[in-house]
Design brief:
Layout: E1 10-15, E2 20-25, H1 33-37, H2 62-73, H3 78-82, H4 86-91, E3 95-100, H5 106-114, E4 125-131, H6 134-146, E5 154-158, E6 177-181, H7 190-200, E7 205-206, E8 212-213, E9 217-218, E10 220-222, E11 226-230, H8 239-247, H9 263-278, H10 289-292
Parallel strand pairs: 3-4, 3-6, 4-5, 6-11
Antiparallel strand pairs: 1-2, 7-10, 8-9
Helix pairs in contact: 2-5, 7-9
Length: 295
């Protein structure tokens, strides 16, 4: 690949209320993940696809920034309930967080900076950053060092979604929270992401019938793991995907309502539909205006 691309990385910062996250990334310009996927000249036939450089992991995408800000503001209690869970602290020596498709690592870095160990609270959080791209992992490791994070509070592992032989053995069924921010830009990526997260998370133990409370979440006998997905719509569903979801949802008898919904709403419903089929339960959801207007 063109090595000059790597020289364009520069140190930037994301400001929270009481912290600043320093990270190396490409200059922020208007492009989509697909624009970044193959920056090589398409006419260079002598280069095979395996030599193409994928720069998506070295750019700070909007959804990762939004998730960092959401944690900082504790929107819907997303940070206090799930990251700083007292149940996690009582049960385990460390709260284990794993970020899928970490890229620059903004979401995980925000988690680490907002959970600095405190003698009074005995808070102890470790983040495992994962990505399939080694250049991204190397850059993420540099970003951890840029922010002065102690090395015993994080780890970096190469992981490919849907390929269990790449999953860290010490994380299987042991992760308290999986983070994923701006990692979906093809409909085929949704199921592998969800299946991977489900395999890594600690299983929930149900107490009787599953009861959902909008404020407290499902009634579980013992707390299991959670997936926090920060998503910016970057593709639309096909008609076949819409019809497949409707066919598998017996509660939705008004198929005509699909025609009145915005594309991003249909995509949200599709992601939720696949998550439910994997065994997840939707606890809460909020839109960007609840986060971005504060910054």
């Amino acid at each position: 690949f063109d090595e000059s691309l790597l020289l364009k990385l520069k140190v930037q910062s994301l400001h929270l209320q009481e912290h600043a996250i320093w990270y190396k990334s490409y200059s922020e310009i208007e492009m989509t993940p697909l624009d970044m996927y193959n920056p090589l000249d398409a006419h260079q036939d002598h280069l095979s696809q395996q030599h193409c450089y994928d720069g998506t992991g070295t750019l700070a995408w909007l959804a990762s920034k939004a998730l960092a800000w959401a944690f900082d503001q504790d929107v819907h209690g997303i940070f206090s309930k799930y990251i700083m869970s007292q149940e996690n602290q009582k049960r385990r020596e460390k709260t284990l967080i794993l970020e899928l498709g970490c890229g620059t690592g903004l979401s995980g870095l925000a988690t680490l900076l907002l959970t600095t160990p405190d003698a009074a609270s005995k808070l102890n959080v470790k983040v495992v950053f994962t990505d399939s791209d080694m250049e991204s992992l190397d850059n993420c490791r540099d970003n951890c060092e840029l922010n002065g994070i102690p090395s015993d509070r994080y780890a970096h592992e190469r992981l490919s979604w849907g390929m269990p032989d790449t999953y860290p053995s010490n994380c299987l069924g042991a992760v308290d929270v999986v983070l994923a921010a701006d990692v979906l830009y093809d409909v085929k990526m949704i199921a592998p992401l969800l299946q991977t997260a489900y395999t890594l998370l600690r299983p929930h133990s149900l107490s009787g019938n599953l009861a959902i409370d909008q404020s407290d979440g499902p009634n579980f006998a013992s707390e299991g793991g959670y997936l926090i997905l920060s998503h910016v719509p970057r593709f639309c569903l096909s008609r076949e995907d819409h019809e497949h979801d409707d066919h598998n949802d017996p509660s939705d008898t008004d198929h005509s309502s699909t025609r009145t919904k915005q594309p991003f709403q249909l995509l949200e419903e599709h992601i939720i539909h696949l998550a439910l089929s994997c065994g997840f339960v939707l606890i809460t959801m909020f839109r960007p205006h609840m986060v971005l207007l504060q910054y």
